[in-house]
Each structure stands twice: as C-alpha cells, then as structure tokens.
Amino acid sequence: MSEVILRTQQLTKKYKKDIALDHVSMTVRKGEIYGLIGQNGAGKSTLIRLVTGLAFPTSGTIELFGHNEKKAYTDALKRIGAMIEHPAIYPNMSAVENLEVHRLQKGIPGKECISETLEIVGLSKTGKKKAKNFSLGMKQRLGIAIALLSDPEFLILDEPTNGLDPMGIVEIRELIKTLNREKGITVLISSHILSELSQLATKFGIIHKGKLLEQITAEQLNEKCRQYLKIKVDDPSLGATVIETSLQTTDFEVMNDGVIKLYRYLDDVRTVSKTLTDNGLTIEHLSEEGDDLETYFAKVIGGAFDE
Amino acid sequence: MSNLLRAEIFKLNRNKTFWTLSLFIMVISTFMHFLIVTDWWVMTNSPFEYVGMSDFNALATFIVPLFFNVIVSTLAGFFIATEFSQHSVIKNQIVSGHKRSHIFLAKYIVFTIGSLLVTIVIPLVTAIVVSMIFGHAEFLSTANVEFLSKSYGLFTLPFLSFTLVVLIIAIVTEDSGRTIIFTLLLSAFMFVVEKLVTNSFIKSLYEYTFFYQFTVAFNPALTGKELTQSIIIGTVSFIVLIILGKFIFKRKEIK
Question: In A, which residues are within 8 Å of B86 by CB distance?
C-alpha cells in the first residue's frame, strides 16, 4: 500500500441546522488522481475547504501527510497546491505579478519558477496583460499555475474546468495527467461533470447530500460498468457449452436466473445468435447491456445524475 | 513571517488605491501648505499656531479623525477587504501553510505602514518641504522638532489601534464599501460622543479610549500625567485589539 496523503475520519461540518458534510471518511493515497464526484451542493467544496484549512470541522479528523495536530497540519499545507472554486487571482496584476506574490509568500528562491510554471500552463506569452483582461480559461490556468508554483506533492483542484470550452477542458485534463504521471503529483479533483472525471481519475469518491456513498477505484468501476450481451435461452447449461465450444470463449457468466452474460462478441451479435440457433437453442432474449458511468453513479446516489 | 511581509509589501506597492491616495494627499497637502505659507489662506486655532509653527497649520486638517478615517478606511477597503471578496485571494494565503496569526500580523503591519505613510508622513514631509521652499523654516528650532516628535509619537500610538479596528472591520465585513461605511459610522459615533454628549460618565469613559488620544496628542500644554495616561491608553488599546484581531481571524471561515 502506498503512503496515505490525505485521510479524513468521520468528518462532519454543520452550519446551524444544515449538515454540509456528514461523517465522511476517505483516503487519498500517493500517486492517485482522486475524483470527488457529486451534484452541485453535494458537499465537495465544503470537504475541500475543510482539508485546506479555510473552514473548520464540527467533528471528525483530517490527516494530511500523516499530520493532524494543528501546527504540523499547517506546516503540511506547505506541501500542497490548491485552486478552490474560482481562481484566486489579483485582477490588476499580470500573470507574472500574480505568481510573484505567491512566490514571495511561499519563500521560493529564484524567479525562474515563475516562467517555468507559466510555460507549463501555457501562459508564458501573456506579458503585461492584466489578469482581469484574461479569458475565463486563462484565469483558470493562472489559478492552476498558482497551485503548481511551489512544486506541490498534492494538488487540490475544485471544479478546475468550470467555464472552460471543450478544448480547454481537454488541455487541463492532459495537464493533470502529465503532472501525475511525470511529476508523481497526487491529485484530488472535484467535479459535477462525470465525463470529465471518468477520463482522468484513478479513484472515485461519490458524495451526495454530504455523505460519501462510495469509494471505488477506476478498475473496480470499469468492472462494474462492463458491457455484455444478455442472453436468455431455453437451456442455459447447453447455451454455456455452446458458447465455450463454438464461440471459443470462457469470458461469460451464467447467472442464477439462467441469464448468460457474455462479455465478448459485443460487436458481432449475429454470430452469437446464429451459433446458438444452429445448435438447437431457442433464444428468448438477446441484447447489449451494462451500465455506463452515469447510470452507475445515478444508481449509487439513488436518482438521476444531474450534469 | 518575513515571506508574508515581503508579499504584502509587493501587493501594497502595486495597489492602485494606495498610490491614488498618496498622490491625492500629496497634492492637497502641498496646495494647502502653499496657500498658508504664502498667506493666501489663514487658518487659526490650530495646535501648530500655539507653538509658533503657523506654517504648519494645514497639518491640523490631516489629524482630524473624520478626515484620516476616510483615507484609512478607503485603503482598508481596497487593500484588505477585497482580498476576501473580489477573487478571494485570501484563500491562497491560508493554504500557503502560514499560521493565521502571522498572516494577520503581516497584513496589519503593511496596512499600518501604508496608512501612516498616507496620513502622517506625506502631509508632514510636504509641510516641511513647502515651508523650506516658501516659508520661514521655523520648524528647524529644537523646541519645534521636540513638539512634532512628541505629538506625532503620541498620535501614532492610538493610530496603531485605529488601523487595527479598521483592519478588523475589513476582515469581518469582507467588503470595501461596508468597510468604509462602518469605519465612518464608528468615527461619527465617537465624534458625537466627544462633541455632543454632555453626560459626564460617558464623557469620562470616552476620555479613556484611544479615540480621545488623537485630540490629546497635539495639546501643546500636555502635562506629565496626561502624557503618561495617553501612552498607557494607547498601549493597552493596542494590546487588547491585537489579541482580539488575531482571535477573530484565527476563527474566521473563508468562503
């Protein structure tokens, strides 16, 4: 098991009568891209605000790099970079000046880190242009640049693709993947856009109405969402034998109700159908089945997933 | 802490409001002093006149609480409060791994330096320069230098508490407009207490606040007891307010 970067235990946040976060226990391990999925108002930002020290938990504990004692926790924050909700930038400063503020604040020696970081996020040619005149995408990139400036071990991004155009979304996604792969940066990213996270995260946390309903790895999720041919024949055991001998695959399951789940031949249904009928079987049902990611998440939260 | 101070100084240096206020005060102070030094305008009953420094009479305008309140609250609004509202850049400071008390102190120190520069240093320097060029250079006497040092020293002490109050208002309201309005309301309230309230208990209570010490600071006939009292009130107010400010900021949830 790799090192635990972030662990919350029974983390709860109440605002008067409202429970924003309800006994959330989650773990982010080194090297993971942890996708926090939930609808708007599910509690994603509250969780991130608690982790980054912007707000205080009502109960429960947070451990960052193994530290949960106040002073050590504050020190551990130096090892993270974060962009929470909106990029926190000074509108009357250029990209370079914005990064200079944060360079000074973090005590990073040498100014070369500024041009390097701007190069990474594609803002190296903005010159003296004030941040207030940046496009939304450029502002998001600048926010990410600020988070990356101190070469963090753990990057926290709350809805980083908000307001970005499709190309911008792809670029940010590729950037995060590159940072994770090449620099080994662990990432916690929240979004309510499922398609965005599904292509990026190696682990998912599904949050709904303040509760963390499930933590699941990308592999487990793919397994659960695997597509198959649902076959119902008059003699399931003969059907299984036919699939094994004639279609030469063992990648199928016979369920208790006699339904056969065949994970191959998804693009060649006619061959399956012909083989079964040629062997004297009557096909009662044959269809392509399986959850897509959105359906799976909708099932977990017990309703339609609202993009 | 030194990193935070450097970052705050960098921000102040690039703050448009700070430079606009500095320029405004410089122009208005130069103009007023020029008018007075060249006898185009006569101001009377200023504390500077009492000690024979009538060239410096215009400085009396800059030590009126309602006047410097506008300056300080405007700076607080656009240097401190906007960090919490506009783009919530305060988030980055909290996440940077610095103690909240250090963040508060760094903001306080740099904000106070900025406020002192705009409301005290610039008017004083322009007064000296204008007096040197067009006046009688009467400020050069030892007695006058002593008076200025003592008065501005005594003025600065409650000023340190005043900037703390304004900083706390900016942090609590998180809005430049509300920072200015609440600060002005507070000053107006204190002005009413000082000038209009006749109740002796409230009067004597008011005299123990740092607000009253702004009036005491430039009293040419200050007794030793009043001097000591002013220093104690200024110091105690500063200590209490700095503890209160740190307490509030440490418990503040950032939106």
Answer: 91
Residues of chain B with Cβ-Cβ distance to A89 below 8 Å are 87, 89
Of A206, A207, A208, A204, nearest to A221 (Cα)? A204
Torsion sign (Cα): A48, A53, A55, A57: positive
What are the residue ranges spanned by the domains of chain B?
Answer: 2-250
Query: A74, A234 in Cβ contact below 8 A?
Result: no
Instruction: Output the CA torsion sign for B225, B226, B227, B229.
Output: positive
Question: Best of B19, B20, B96 to disrupt the A interface by mutation (most A CBs within 10 Å)?
Answer: B96
Cβ burial of A158 (10 Å; 0-12, 13-18, 19+) is: buried
CB contact under 8 A, B87 and A90: yes
Q: What's the rounded Cα separation, in Å, for the pair B181 and B145?
A: 36
Any idea of the CA torsion for A291, A295, A297, A300, to the nearest 10 degrees?
-90
- Cross-sheet strand order for the sheet of A203-208: A80-83, A154-158, A186-191, A33-37, A203-208, A211-217
Query: B204 CA to chain A: closest CA distance, Å?
Result: 41
Region of poorest pLDDT, from A289-298, B66-75, B101-110, B142-151 = A289-298
pLDDT at A307 over 50: no
- Give the C-alpha separation, B237 to B240, whole Å: 5
Put simply, whether B1 touches A (Cβ < 8 Å) is no
DSSP assignment string, A174-186: HHHHHHHHHH--E
Q: Which residues of A touch B247 (CB under 8 A)?
A: none
Burial of residue A284, with CB atoms counted within 10 A of its CB: 0-12 exposed, 13-18 middle, 19 or more buried: exposed
- Shortest Cα distance, chain A CAs vs residue B136, angstroms: 44
A–B CB contacts, 8 A cutoff, strictly below = 83
How confident is the model over B162-184, as a mean pLDDT? 88
What residue type is assigned to position A271 of the chain? T
- In this prediction the pTM is 0.81
Using a CB-CB cut-off of 8 Å, the residues of chain A touching B93 are: 105
Show which residues on chain A lie within 8 Å of chain B, measured between beta carbons.
49, 52-56, 71, 74-82, 84-93, 97, 100-102, 104-107, 146
Give CA–CA dist A109/B39, Å, rounded: 55
CB B209 within 8 A of CB B234: no
Q: Tell me, yes or no, if B13 comes closer than 8 A to chain A by beta carbon.
A: no
Please check the confidence at residue A305 and state whether its pLDDT lies above 50: no
- The predicted pLDDT at position B119 comes to 92
Residue from B10, B79, B85, B91 to probe the interface with A (highest A Cβ count within 10 Å): B91
